[in-house]
Amino acid sequence: MNIDVRSVHFDLSEQSREYLNTKISRIDYAKDLIVDLLFVFTKDAGRFRLEVTANFRWGKQAHLVVTSPELNAGIDVLIDKLDHKIVKEKEKIQKKNK
User: Fold this and answer.
1) What's the CA gap between 95 and 98, in Å, rounded?
2) Which CATH class name applies to 2-96?
3) Domain range annotation of the chain
4) d(CA 18, CA 71)
């Protein structure tokens, strides 16, 4: 699983990167299902827009967006949404293969 993190209009601190990496470890069960995770964090007018694009190995792509006044709170919500999406896509594939 390739992970790319980009920040726009601000520099992502090392502490925030470590926080993101600990949260990403929650979805380690899906490392065989996901080819790429592309994160884009944008700061605009005091708010953060957090986006992730997950490219699944079967060709499906999921794009999730969260807006939050705090970066860490936004990361929490984004990873929760991503976890839910992974489970949903995994169930679809398992159902389709039966």
Assistant:
1) 5
2) alpha beta
3) 2-96
4) 13
Distance CA(72)–CA(29), nearest Å, equals 22
| Cβ-Cβ contacts under 8 Å for 77 (sequence gap 6 or more) | 50, 66, 68
32: tokens are 């065989």
Cα angle: 78, vertex 51, 4; to 5 degrees: 100
pTM of the model: 0.92
Amino acid residing at 52: V
Residue type, 23: K
User: What's residue 71's pLDDT?
Assistant: 97
Q: Return d(Cα 84, Cα 98) in angstroms, integer.
A: 22
Asked whether 5 and 20 are in contact (CB, 8 A), the reply is yes
What tens-digit pLDDT sequence spans the chain (98 residues)? Answer: 899 999 999 999 999 999 999 999 999 999 999 999 999 999 999 899 999 999 999 999 999 999 999 999 999 999 999 999 999 999 998 887 76
